[in-house]
Amino acid sequence: xxxxxxxxxxxxxxxxxxxxxxxxxxxxxxxxxxxxxxxxxxxxxxxxxxxxxxxxxxxxxxxxxxxxxxxxxxxxxxxxxxxxxxx
Length: 87
Prior knowledge:
- By secondary structure, this protein is an alpha+beta fold.
- It has three helices and four strands.
- The relative contact order is 0.33.
């Protein structure tokens, strides 16, 4: 199962625009993608409201996970780029 660990680098945290992009990428993927916080809260990365409710800030570490598929690594890399544009 492909997994990525990433530290949010957005100076102002995850506001509506990057969360919407994250959800769009997750929904375009054939398999569900989960986002898990360092405190163990897991949400569907395709849900804008669920991700917004996490109130992610710069410095927060999260884990992205999806089922194995031909495009899994690519989509996880794209999601990492949204959460940590410096990566």
